[in-house]
Amino acid sequence: MLFLDLDEATSSTDLVLDLGTKDGRKTAEIDADVAAVDLVFAEDRSDELSYIRGDGTNLPFADNTFDAVYCDQVLEHVKNEEDFISEIARVLKPNGCLWLAFPNRYAVNSPHETPWWISLVPKSERWAALLSEDEASYYINHEWPVGPTRARQVCNKYFEHVEFASLRLRDEYRDWFVGNKRTSVYPPTTSGKSFDKILPAILAIGHVSLFMYVFERLWPHSEYVCRLPKS
Ligand SMILES: C[S@@+](CC[C@H](N)C(=O)[O-])C[C@H]1O[C@@H](n2cnc3c(N)ncnc32)[C@H](O)[C@@H]1O
Q1: What Rg, from alpha-carbon coordinates, does the chain have?
Q2: What is the residue with the minimal CA distance to atom 10 of ligand 1?
Q3: Parent domain of 113
Q4: Residue 191 lies in a domain
Q5: Rounded Cα–Cα distance for residues 6 and 27 (Å)
Q6: Methyltransferase type domain spans which residues (predicted)?
Q7: What ranges in 100-170 are assigned the alpha helix state H?
Q8: What beta strand segments (E) does 104-217 contain?
């Protein structure tokens, strides 16, 4: 299932980077050439894509290579968000576009089946080691992901135009979030149906910039569309 407008925004001649692709399932079906990059490859990865092993903070591509970068649920695993976003801006063409999605550090839920309040505890390698001895560096980053204010600051530094796009969730994306599949993790008191009822009101008040500012900081899932990388 594809969760964003990338399919509509790209054409078959475009070159798309799926950064932190894991099994490649989210971009395997888009109508474009996709370079699927990850630190490690999932065994059950789709055979539709070409995989390249690489680190998002030091990408093995020349400047101005890609028309679009798709980066879903990866930023929260990255140690240095500035190195990561600046590399993305570097490999994008001047009119290229980044779609970036990650869980809000301060949301009252946890994207990784650990208690939601963990991310409110100050970031600490010692806490992380308690959570997982073998994968401390993985946990430290995904339980203490970058917050929305910092993410916006870094995106603004490397892109001319940054749009908070979470309120434009496509139906299937919204269903994935608050529908039956994830209600145990995502807002436990909000069913897909009641969310449908309040969404028009949220969208209406989202037009007022102060409310949008608040939504951007509190929305459980941060989704940005960043255009015009700064060279
Ligand atoms: C939660 S998974 C998300 C996978 C996929 N994008 C999705 O939405 O289903 C995070 C992935 O990011 C990869 N990753 C973490 N840090 C990375 C980095 N610095 N460079 C490239 N990939 C990275 C991990 O190996 C993992 O496969």
Answers
A1: 17
A2: 74
A3: 6-169+221-229
A4: no
A5: 9
A6: 17-99
A7: 125-131, 136-143, 148-158
A8: 159-164
Residue 210 Cβ < 6 Å to ligand 1: no
Which residue's alpha carbon is nearest to atom 8 within ligand 1? 72
> Tens of pLDDT along 2-42?
334 555 555 566 899 999 999 888 888 777 889 999 998 88
Rounded distance from Cα 200 to ligand 1 centre (Å): 33
In the chain, how long is the greatest CA-to-CA distance?
47
Q: Is the CB of 221 under 6 A from ligand 1?
A: no
Angstrom distance (rounded) from CA 184 to CA 191? 10
Assign residue 131 the CATH number of its domain. Answer: 3.40.50.150
Model pLDDT for residues 76-108, shown as the tens digit of each residue: 888 889 999 999 999 999 999 998 988 887 776
Burial label, 132 (beta-carbon count in 10 A; 0-12, 13-18, 19+): middle
